[in-house]
Amino acid sequence: MIYSIPADRSITQVLDEAGICIPVTCEQEICGTCLTGVLEGEPDHRDSFLTTEERVTNDQFTPCCSRARSACLVLDL
Ligand code: FES
C-alpha cells in the first residue's frame, strides 16, 4: 500500500488510521520506541535518538517525527 503523509500529520498517525500500528511512547523524537526499518528511500531524520552514524545508513528511522527526503519511503513493517 502507498500512503501520502500530509504535512500536519505524522507517519505513525496516518499508518495507525490505516490499521498499521507502530508502537510509540514519547512521540517527541527522543525514545526510539517507534524505530522502523527503511528498505528504500531517504529518511529526513528529525529525531534526537539515532546517532549520526546510524542516520547515514538510512536503513532505519523514527516515524513518529521523521519524514522523507525522497519522494517515497519503503518501510519494513
Ligand atoms: S515514539 Fe519516541 S522517538 Fe518515536
Strand content: 15-25%
Work out the number of β strands. 5
CATH architecture title:
Roll
Number of separate helices: 2
What would you give as the CATH superfamily?
Beta-grasp domain
Structural class: alpha+beta
Low-confidence stretches: none
Shape: globular
Spatial order of the strands forming the largest sheet: 3-1-5
User: What is the C-level CATH assignment?
Assistant: Alpha Beta
H-E order: HEEHEEE
Give the topology, please.
Layout: H1 11-17, E1 36-40, E2 43-44, H2 52-56, E3 60-61, E4 67-68, E5 74-76
Antiparallel strand pairs: 1-3, 1-5, 2-4
Précis, in short:
This protein is of the alpha+beta class and 77 residues long. 16% of the residues lie in helices and 18% in strands.
Fold and architecture overview:
The protein has 77 residues and is α+β, with helices and mostly antiparallel strands. It has a single domain, classed as Beta-grasp domain (Ubiquitin-like (UB roll), Roll). It has two helices and five strands. It has helices at residues 11-17, 52-56, and strands spanning 36-40, 43-44, 60-61, 67-68, 74-76. It has a three-stranded antiparallel sheet with strand order 3-1-5, with no helix packed on it. Strands 2-4 form a two-stranded antiparallel ribbon. The mean pLDDT is 97. The structure holds FE2/S2 (inorganic) cluster. FE2/S2 (inorganic) cluster is lined by residues 24-27, 29-34, 47, 49, 62, 64.
